[in-house]
């Protein structure tokens, strides 16, 4: 149980593209610094990170406890996964199955089919993307706009990204 006055922990199941983006800009550490969020990674996603340096960074984050690996175990999760694997990749299907069945948030930069399926199954406000994570870090005081990775060009979109991503997530707390 969280201490009095603190927010309950919100679990965020994380797709490979988020991990790879944050590894690429050297900010995977942010996932361990965004209270009240706890980021988890399905086994299927861990297997998708194949580049040796990225896999090493991910394993370091897992070993240090920054991220935790989760498994599809419940029959309902496996049923949803079996349905989703017909239209999505393994990692995306695992993330969406876990988010749907466990009432978690989901972090992914996937578009099109994945985004449509996520919104249909989870509703608005439960999908977080890389700019949204960086914007949450900025609004939490963990990162400054000046220190935000240049490659994601948050300097011009920090305000609008915060409006569209952080506000819906804040309503869930």
The global form is globular
In the CATH hierarchy, what is the architecture at level 2? 3-Layer(aba) Sandwich
| Rg computed from alpha carbons, rounded to a whole number of angstroms | 15 Å
Category by helix and strand content: alpha/beta
- Number-wise, the strands total 5
Gap between N and C termini: 15 Å
Quaternary structure annotation = single chain
Largest sheet: 5 strands, parallel
- Helix content percent band: 40-55%
The tally of helices reads 8
Could you explain how this protein is built, in words?
A five-stranded parallel beta sheet has the order 3-2-1-4-5, with helices on both faces. The protein is globular and about 45 Å long. Helix 4 packs across helix 5 (90-102) and helix 7 (130-139) packs across helix 8 (158-172). With 173 residues, it is α/β, with parallel strands linked by helices. The protein has helices at 16-24, 43-48, 52-64, 75-84, 90-102, 112-122, 130-139, 158-172; strands at 10-14, 37-42, 68-70, 105-107, 127-128. It has one domain: 3-Layer(aba) Sandwich (Rossmann fold).
Keywords:
single chain; alpha/beta; 173 residues; Rossmann fold; globular; 5-stranded parallel β-sheet; disordered C terminus
Layout of helices and strands:
Blueprint: E1 10-14, H1 16-24, E2 37-42, H2 43-48, H3 52-64, E3 68-70, H4 75-84, H5 90-102, E4 105-107, H6 112-122, E5 127-128, H7 130-139, H8 158-172
Parallel strand pairs: 1-2, 1-4, 2-3, 4-5
Helix pairs in contact: 4-5, 5-6, 7-8
């Amino acid at each position: 149980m969280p201490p009095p006055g603190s927010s309950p922990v919100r679990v965020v199941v994380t797709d490979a593209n988020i991990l790879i983006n944050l590894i690429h800009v050297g900010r995977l550490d942010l996932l361990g610094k965004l209270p009240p969020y706890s980021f988890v990674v399905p086994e299927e996603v861990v297997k998708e990170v194949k580049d040796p340096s990225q896999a090493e960074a991910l394993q370091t984050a897992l070993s240090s406890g920054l991220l935790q690996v989760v498994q599809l175990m419940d029959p309902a999760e496996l049923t949803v996964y079996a349905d989703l694997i017909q239209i999505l990749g393994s990692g995306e299907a695992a993330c969406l199955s876990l988010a749907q069945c466990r009432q978690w948030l989901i972090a992914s930069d996937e578009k099109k089919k994945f985004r449509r399926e996520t919104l249909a199954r989870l509703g608005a406000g439960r999908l977080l993307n890389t700019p949204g994570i960086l914007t949450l870090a900025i609004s939490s005081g963990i990162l400054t706009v000046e220190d935000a990775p240049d490659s994601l060009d948050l300097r011009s979109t920090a305000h609008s990204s915060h409006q569209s991503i952080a506000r819906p997530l804040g309503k869930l707390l």
